[in-house]
Amino acid sequence: MFTTQEFAEGPARRGPHAPRRWLLAAAAAVLIVIVSIVAIALIRDRTTDSATSTEPGTLATATPPRELEWKLINGVRLPFGADGPAKVEGPRAHGYTHTPHGALLAAWQISTRVLTDVRYEQILSTQVRADLGQQQQLRNAVTQTRNLSPEEFDAAFRQPVAFQFATYTPTFARIYFAVPSSKGGYDFQRRAVLWDGNDWVYQVDSGLPELPNSTALKGFTTF
């Protein structure tokens, strides 16, 4: 805490102002310790805040949605819970909470309904974010879905068993869903939703990389 000169001017070379110098030096040493403690605390707080802001979806969804119930709709199981949907009007299920769990329920509900409901155009026009090319791809997928055998349909629309947020912000969420695979283990389906100011809407292009089939669900939360 002291310079070489201050150390040399110890008790053996006390002058009339020596006690004062030592008192000031001691006070400075205490001040340095206090400042160091405060700085460490601030750094620790900022590190915690940074982790929370970069992975809010992961931290906020360590548990499944509240009051979760899977209901059979159009031949597939869809999730309903305290975070939505609040209303079902015709083919449209809407009214999701502005939370990670609301985004989670909307992502699976809307993306599945648009492929399995004969009134899918109502969903496509109001709850799907897609360019013209992507809209046509969805229509083609609907046609393919209608041509599936019952066994193929059941395999294509199995109920997910777990999920993992790749991204979550109040305006955008990207999610992986783990679905039991006919090959064994789990396949992973990618979804994305946007907050349009009133509700979550499904974005066709998730921007997520494909994950390989796996027998493990490390990092996933089970429903």
Spans where pLDDT lies below 50 across 5 or more residues: 1-58
Q: Which band does the percent of strand residues land in?
A: 15-25%
Residue share in helix: 40-55%
Element order, helices and strands?
Answer: HHHEEEEHHEHHEEEEE
Largest sheet: 6 strands, mixed
Give me the side-by-side strand order of the main sheet: 5-9-8-7-6-10
Computed CA radius of gyration, to the nearest angstrom: 29 Å
Mean pLDDT: 81
Report the structural category. Answer: alpha+beta
How many strand elements? 10
Number of discrete helical segments = 7
* Number of individual domains: 2
3D shape? globular
Span between termini: 57 Å
Protein name: DUF8175 domain-containing protein
Keywords: Membrane, Transmembrane, Transmembrane helix
Pfam families: DUF8175 (PF26526)
InterPro entries: DUF8175
Please outline the helices and strands.
Blueprint: H1 4-8, H2 18-54, H3 56-60, E1 69-73, E2 76-80, E3 87-89, E4 92-94, H4 100-116, H5 120-127, E5 128-129, H6 132-146, H7 150-156, E6 162-169, E7 172-180, E8 186-195, E9 200-203, E10 221-222
Parallel strand pairs: 5-9
Antiparallel strand pairs: 1-2, 3-4, 6-7, 6-10, 7-8, 8-9
Helix pairs in contact: 4-5
What can you tell me about this protein's structure?
This protein folds into 2 domains: 16-54; 57-222, no CATH class. It has 7 helices and 10 strands. The protein has helices at 4-8, 18-54, 56-60, 100-116, 120-127, 132-146, 150-156; strands at residues 69-73, 76-80, 87-89, 92-94, 128-129, 162-169, 172-180, 186-195, 200-203, 221-222. The chain has a 6-stranded mixed beta sheet. Strands 1-2 form a two-stranded antiparallel sheet. The protein is globular and about 35 Å long. It starts with a helix and ends with a strand.
